[in-house]
Each structure stands twice: as C-alpha cells, then as structure tokens.
Design goal:
single chain, 292 residues, alpha/beta, Rossmann fold, two-stranded parallel sheet, 11 helices
Length: 292
C-alpha cells in the first residue's frame, strides 16, 4: 500500500516499522510482503513510539523524511504531532465505512461490509444510510446474526455500539448529500443503477460500486492503494498515490530583458510593504509611479 507507490515514484530508500508478533519476531507473511515490495530495512516496532523513532531517529532507527501508512488512534495522533518535523501522507485511521443502499441491496452483503470494518478497531465507524426501512431492519438482523460467529466480535460489537448507525432517509440523493458531508473513508453504493450516482460523490476516500465491489477486497487486493483519508479529511485530501512521493522545486533563471521588465514591479511591491533592501537601480521603478 505504501512501499509500491514510493518505489514507482523513485524513492531511494524505504523503511518499514511493524509490530512484532507474540514471539517477539516480525511475522513471516509480513517479511515476505516486504521483500516483494522491495523494502530496504525492517524494524520490529509499532505504535506511537514507531512514529517518534522515524521522525527523530534513534541509535538503531534512522530519521526519515516522510511517514506513510494507516494506524489506530495513537498512530494517527502521533503522526499529527510530528508533522512539520517530517512530512506525513495524511491522517488515516481508525477505519470507516458508509453504505448507501436501497431496497434492491442484499442485506447479508450490507451487514458483512459493516462488520468487516467494525472488527478493525473499537473506534471504527460503520454506517448504513438507506431509503428503505425494511432493508434497515433486515441489515440489523443480519449484523446480529453474523456478529455471533466473529473471532473479534467483542471489538466489532463495541464499534457498532459507539459509532455504528442505521439511518433511514427519504431518497438516495438525500443519502448522498449526507455522505458528502461525512466524507467517509469507504463509500459503498449498493443501489440500483449504482454507476449513475458516482459523479454525485464529492467526498470519499474510495467508492465501491455495486454489491460485488466489497470493501474487504479493497482492503487487500483491489485498487491502487488502500491508504485512504479518514475523519472527514476526504473533503480536502486523496488516497495515497505516487504524487505523494514526488517533490517539486521552483527554478528562477532570468535574463537581462526579463529582469528589466520585472524589477520595477518587484520594487513597487516591496516598498509598499516597507521593505527597502534592494539593488539601487530597482528603486527608480518606485519613483516613476505617481500615486493619485
């Protein structure tokens, strides 16, 4: 999700921090994934302390220029605190899903997508907005039924109790208006003719169109990167992509003609601000202006 876009953009060194497992070692699947993604160095550390280590450096962990990747509330707050010391990709986490559904939606699928995000974190948010009270009731029953079989049912139940919602509105357009205000990380369109509503979505990290485009696939294998904005930041930010790893440098290289054309204007603006330190030949531009 982070290393591959960085490599495509030409980043020279990629460092991974990841919590070790119960054995004290980084799990083998993580090591294999890091090798495939061409990660240069791996450190078995996670949480807010990993963010601090990357931002300021330690005896063993080098300081980096940019920190990327989602995390729990502690990781998100740590990234926010170190922004400015280093760059960050954004504030991603805890997880969110908002489903817009009508009477054609499959309640079993709706419930599964809600639970798939609720089981991430007690602070995860799972919301369904529908114009069908009948569907809302069926989804509620499905959630209760599917919840019983989840290994992480306690986490999912806490998430649903504190941050879960089933909302009934009049029309799908009203649901989209609410979704744009909320700006969710994941937005699912489980409605008839779902593609016709895509252009009405202004704020979302990722749009999942139709019941076959399940959020669980987006979490792992579908889409360019699943590092997505949360907490309403989709109103002004985008999913992680290669442009996050590209830096621009302005270049000014004037010839004599350009200098003669621009210097008087620069002189006027500078002196209007009360700034006088400029080459003497520029100052004539200010005296030539007559103020009415």
């Amino acid at each position: 999700m982070t290393a591959i876009p960085a490599r495509v953009a030409g980043v020279k060194e990629v460092i991974l921090v990841t919590p070790p497992g119960p054995s004290g070692l980084v799990p083998p699947p993580t090591l294999v994934a890091a090798d495939i993604a061409q990660v240069d160095r791996i450190f078995g550390i996670g949480g807010a302390q990993a963010i601090a280590a990357l931002a300021f450096g330690t005896e063993s962990i080098p300081r980096v220029d940019k920190i990327c990747g989602p995390g729990n509330i502690f990781v998100v707050l740590a990234k926010k605190l170190v922004y400015g010391v280093v760059d960050i990709d954004g504030l991603q986490g805890p997880s969110e899903v908002l489903i817009i559904a009508d009477e054609t939606a499959n309640p079993e699928y709706c419930a599964a997508d809600l639970l798939a995000q609720a089981e991430h974190d007690p602070l995860a948010s799972a919301i369904l907005i529908t114009n069908s009270s009948g569907l809302a009731g069926e989804v509620n029953r499905q959630v209760e039924q599917q919840l019983k079989g989840l290994p992480r049912k306690d986490i999912a139940a806490e998430s649903l109790a504190n941050r879960g919602k089933l909302v009934v509105v009049t029309t799908v357009d009203e649901a989209i208006e609410l979704a744009n205000l909320y700006a969710p990380e994941h937005l699912c369109l489980m409605v008839d003719k779902a593609t016709s509503y895509i252009n009405k979505i202004a704020n979302a990290g990722c749009i999942f169109v139709g019941e076959k485009s399940t959020v669980a696939l987006g979490d792992y294998v579908a889409g360019p990167s699943h590092v997505l904005p949360t907490g309403g930041t989709a109103r002004f930010s985008s999913p992680l992509n290669i442009t996050d790893f590209i830096k621009f440098i302005n270049l000014v290289n004037l010839d004599k003609v350009s200098l003669q054309q621009l210097a008087p204007a620069a002189s006027i603006i500078a002196r209007a601000e009360g700034l006088e330190a400029m080459p003497g030949r520029w100052k004539s531009g200010y005296e030539q202006v007559k103020i009415a």
